[in-house]
Design goal:
The structure holds two protein chains of two kinds. By secondary structure, chain A is of the alpha+beta class. Chain A contains eight helices and 20 strands. Chain A starts with a strand and ends in an 18-residue tail after the last strand. Classes of the chains: A alpha+beta, B alpha+beta.
């Protein structure tokens, strides 16, 4: 298995620039997820890594070797697509063994490899079955088996679970991740589903309009989003923003919202008077009668263990995740308390997070 | 009066019994969600109401009229499919107007215009009316598809996973919007999904289906707090309810028939000091962004519970567990109701 370096890679189709100078490194053995909305350039990036598209600029290194101009077949990478194309007239054994047969491996070795892979995927009891009669999950395992059997340097997966129903998707998420660990693979995985990304990734790169918004572990990205785009894209429900008109000085630990003092992580930069957004995750909001920051409840969504309560304030809407046992009336006025050390401040013009104690001074990841 | 009723309806496809003896009444203005895994019979149920399938047995009643033998066009229903099928050569306006312009309806253009504008406003797509359907984002297309059903005023809207092809963020937005629209218009909706969050947040009542059978019907809170079986209990809740063999609790205070104990995350208290509860070990702590899940080993059974951020737990920690309000299930997986279960530990 290998590490993959993507250096200043760009791709233009006619007048449209799909990828605008992207940099990241996928470490050996890691599960790396490219996450973003449709049209953000994630598939194009993956196709360039695979060798299915030639970059307009930049380099791609596989294990230190520049493979930018190498065709896909020379890269020793396996690509798993969203729709699994199995050969319907072949049985499971033949489907998995197909890539090896194409490369004229000796029969005995094909047999041994196929059985090893089938055992790994727990489909060894299905080897002689035709793929037509298999369940969706087993078909998917066969398709994965066909990718694994070659023992490539890396796996590239383009929304491989996109076509499955959500419940089954969650199951396969766990299975894919476990498989990745068992075979010590390097995997680059594309999805637009943040839950999938959070559940599976060692590191996530979030792309938007052909650019990298942020790279980090799921927890970093969730807790310390670099941009309002990331803050809004990640989280269900996403981060809430309150409008703040103020000036900031280095060392500030309070701001005023609608006259109410709100404690925030120490600000590390001087900023003149301007518009900012105070970002807060729903689980860092609670209700306290005494709080001077007031709002009115406009809705509550019951989720079983918790509920999501939406509150309007003079400075914008805010969502709180509260235990279901807490009784909340639509229309009631509540005092809002925000967990001081978990708040982000964004410059609303640039969308960038301000350096603060939460971001430990460096937030341009 | 019930708007739509199914009375003891069954439907088989060859050897597969897709729907078995299903009875269900949906009241006027009610939002009912059928929840279940793939193959549970949810879509077949919708198609039976729409008239796209004929029941082998039983009756479909819409607004007091038995419609079992009527073709879809005669039944007063509107269907929204999972894959939005818009007319690509038409504008958003014309797509929305299409159902009203059908020769069978003969709505005059003024009335069409009024209705289209009203629905477009409701769905926040009024600024896109002049666009070609193909020049829309996925979320906008799905809103147009829903809008095309809303321009009509049927007895019931039948929706088959209309949000499942959208990404998570958009799904959450449209979920709220659909519920708002349903409340504002007082429409009757039967909605099919396998997404428990959609069911919990939108439904007035949820019907949990499995293997063609309606297992339980109730408000989201009833289904979550008082599931009638271990199966229903496991359908709702994130992380999922922990189902463990009753002997692991090792207490004589359990109801005698109890074989399985269901513990939701909010009913498990972890204390690090040795208390009276059973001892367990922290296996690992999983960070999912908004939630941290603690995986705990109790004997050789795994429990998953939400971590209290204020309680620092790490892999290998020995902890004692306390359980409040466990659910008890008998051999067959049916819940032993609270009255019989008095004398909890």
């Amino acid at each position: 298995m290998a590490d993959i370096k993507v250096e200043n890679v760009a791709k233009t189709f006619g007048t449209f620039t799909a990828v605008k100078g992207v940099n990241f490194t996928v470490d050996h053995g890691s599960f790396f997820v490219i996450l973003g909305p449709s049209g953000c350039g994630k598939t194009t990036t993956l196709r360039m890594i695979a060798g299915l598209e030639l970059p307009s600029a930049g380099r791609i290194l596989l294990d230190g070797e520049d493979v930018t101009a190498l065709p896909a077949s020379a890269r020793d990478i396996a690509f798993v697509f969203q729709l699994f194309a199995l050969y319907p007239h072949m049985n499971v054994r033949q489907n998995i063994g197909f890539p090896l047969r194409c490369q004229n491996y000796p029969r005995a070795e094909i047999r041994r490899s196929v059985e090893e892979v089938a055992k790994l995927l727990r489909i060894d009891h299905l080897l002689e079955r035709r793929v037509g009669g298999l369940s969706g999950g087993d078909r998917q395992r066969v398709a994965l088996g066909r990718a694994i059997v070659r023992r490539p340097k890396a796996f590239l997966m383009d929304e491989p679970l996109g076509a499955l129903d959500s419940e089954f998707r969650r199951l396969m998420c766990a299975e894919l991740r476990e498989l990745h660990d068992r075979i010590d693979a390097t995997t680059v995985y594309i999805t637009h589903d943040q839950l999938e990304a959070m559940a599976m990734a060692d590191r996530i790169v979030i792309m938007n309009q052909g650019r990298v918004e942020q790279i980090g572990t799921p927890q970093e990205i969730y807790d310390r989003p670099n941009t309002m785009f990331v803050a809004d894209f990640i989280g269900a429900p996403p981060m809430s923003f309150l409008d703040v008109q103020t000036s900031l000085r280095r060392g500030d630990r309070h701001i005023r919202i609608d006259g109410a003092p709100v404690e925030i992580p120490e600000v590390f930069e001087d900023r003149g008077e301007g518009k900012f957004a105070l970002g807060v995750r729903p689980e860092n909001v609670s209700f306290t009668d005494a709080s001077p920051l007031r709002g009115r409840v406009i809705g509550a969504e019951y989720l079983g263990t918790t509920q999501i309560v939406t509150v309007t304030t003079a400075n914008g809407q805010i969502k709180a995740r509260l235990p279901s046992a807490k009784s909340v009336q639509v229309g009631e006025s509540v005092g809002i308390e925000l967990q001081p050390d978990r708040l982000s401040l964004f410059d609303v013009v640039s969308g960038q997070a301000l350096p603060s104690a939460l971001y430990r001074g460096g937030c341009r990841g | 009066m019930a708007e739509v009723s199914l009375v003891d309806v069954s439907k088989s496809f060859g050897p597969v019994e897709a729907v078995r003896g299903l009875s269900l009444s949906i009241a006027d203005g009610e939002f009912v969600v059928l929840l279940g895994p793939t193959g549970a019979g949810k879509t077949t149920t919708l198609r039976l109401i729409a008239g796209l399938e004929r029941p082998d047995q039983g009756n479909v009643i819409i607004q007091g009229r038995v419609v079992t033998d009527e073709v879809p066009a005669q039944r007063d229903v509107a269907f929204v499919f999972q894959q939005y099928s818009l007319y690509p050569h038409l504008t958003v306006y014309d797509n929305l107007a299409f159902p009203l312009r059908s020769p069978a309806r003969r709505v005059n253009e003024d009335a069409v215009r009024r209705k289209v504008l009203q629905v477009a406003e409701l769905l926040h797509i009024e600024h896109k009316l002049g666009n070609r359907a193909t020049a829309l984002s996925g979320g906008e297309m799905q809103r147009v598809a829903i809008g095309r059903a809303l321009v009509r005023d049927p007895a019931v809207y039948l929706m088959d996973e209309p949000l499942s092809s959208l990404d998570a963020k958009l799904r959450a937005e449209l979920r709220l919007e659909l519920k708002r629209i349903q409340r504002e218009l007082g429409t009757t909706i039967l909605y099919v999904t396998h997404d428990q969050i959609e069911a919990m947040t939108m439904a007035d009542r949820i019907g949990v289906m499995n293997d063609g059978v309606l297992i339980q019907l109730g408000t989201p809170r009833e289904i979550y707090e008082r599931p009638n079986s271990a199966y229903v209990a496991s359908r709702l809740g994130t992380p999922a309810i922990n189902l463990i063999p009753s002997e692991l609790l090792g207490s004589s205070a359990l109801p005698p028939q109890a074989r399985t104990v269901g513990l939701r995350t909010e009913h498990i208290r972890i204390s690090s000091q040795a208390r009276s509860g059973p001892l367990a070990r922290v296996h690992w702590v999983e960070h999912l962004g908004d939630q941290n899940h603690v995986h705990i080993k109790l004997a050789d059974h795994s429990l998953v519970t939400l971590a209290d951020p204020a309680q620092p737990l790490k892999a290998g920690d020995e902890v004692s567990l306390e359980f409040t309000d466990p659910l008890y299930f008998d051999q067959a997986g049916n819940r032993i109701c609270a009255e019989e279960a008095r004398g909890d530990p």
